Known about the structure:
The protein is α/β, with parallel strands linked by helices. Helix content is about 40%, strand content about 20%.
Amino acid sequence: MNSKVYLYDTTLRDGTQGEGISLSVEDKIKIALRLDQFGIDFIEGGWPGSNPKDMAFFERIREISLQHAKITAFGSTCRPNIAAPDDENLQALILSGASAAAIFGKSWDLHVTDALKTTLEENVRMVADSVAFLKGNGLTTLFLAEHFFDGYKANPRYALRVLEAAEEAGADWIVLCDTNGGTLPHEVYDIVKTTVGHLRTPVGIHPHNDSGVAVANALAAIQAGAQQVQGTINGIGERCGNVNLISVIPNLQLKLGYHCVSSDQLQELTQLSRYVAEIANMTMPNNQPFVGYSAFAHKGGIHVSAVMRDPKTYEHIEPENIGNKRRVLVSELAGQSNLLAKMEELEIDLSLDREKAREIITHIKEREFQGYQYEGAEASLTLMLLEAAGKLKNLFTLDSFKIMLEKAAVQSITSEATVKLRVNGESVHTAADGNGPVNALDNAMRKALEGYYPCIAKMQLEDYKVRVLDENGATAAKVRVLIESSSNGEKWSTVGVSTNVIEASWEALADSIRYLLWKEGCEEVGNLASSGTRVGIVNH
């Protein structure tokens, strides 16, 4: 294995500059603890001289004993014509209590003369004095050369002179920043290689993703001799984001042979990505490399058949190495291998013969032609497989339901649902209100069944999506309803299709409960969705 690559996470500072990203002090503490457990070497907590929230974070994190990471405070060099000890921002870095400080300074002559409005010599003085001041106060000091690649291309002699000033002042790390994100991998490799050969101090890379090549730039920099990567979890950050450490780490460790974290920690990569996304209230793209829900999903029958024989045929790594898992999608493109693999994945032992498997595949294809989609509704698919094997019996059935909507002139619309069920041979008739017809229906069904099955009370509806399948059908078009439910930390999705959105919603809701009761080990589960539903909708 090649040498160690140090990981510097700036999710809590640079990441929060991304549009729509906001983290409370508590959020930042939680993420910092998770990053520390994962094995991140430096955790940048924020800019203590810029806002009270960041200073509050440093005060809180001081009380916590971390296992591995150095908490790092971010700031800038001293201002022009101000001595470093007299600069308030530098003083704030020391007062933060952080053990490391990362300060940025100008390495592009254009920024020195046009943005700072000072001389090239004064900028060099600012860098050297600031680094020396922080080192003199006992902090591990990282100098971040802002706009380094643009500066190097414009005036390489001056860009390197700035780095030399930081090195001579005692910087522990010199980090090369592609601040505008416009440099390409071959340029990064050449410039980093030259720079590493020019310095004795270890070098880091801080790429942004404005050209869509931040991960490639990070890998190129490491191969050229850099030893540290600065980025964020899930690539969040200003504009197009910072480099995504979630992609950088497995590429470095599994493909290039560098050491970033332990093998056990690497297996937490997927959970780390999803944990940060949850706290940041982000929707993770299903196709995110390595950790996305679809990253190891296989749909085509030929692909699945090959993967089941040897995963290397269609997978570039073993998903378990980074905490993800293989998924087989069953759809109109599926073959028998998809179905058998899905049964194995869902841990359903149905012992189906090939003729029965062909019947189920044909049924699935017919259903998908009607508008059903089982890729995103695996709970409904599970129920279908159990039914096909005769292992899902009716414990309760639907007689009828009715939805009443009322709109008064000065009041908002109200919804009431009435449900008639037959449970264990008994007739159950309930009614419930809701903030909409689907919510009222859900409440009425729960009210009818919770007395028989208390576990239903713990089930929550997490998400509800409606899609019109035929836009040309206008208000008479078929709709597909996908419902995501959860209980005790587990989530599952179900589907319903109808020209009536309420009926489609009922079907998906019914499947949600059926799936829960099957998972809870109930002896029999009712087939609500296919029991001859009669729908009545009354508007007042």
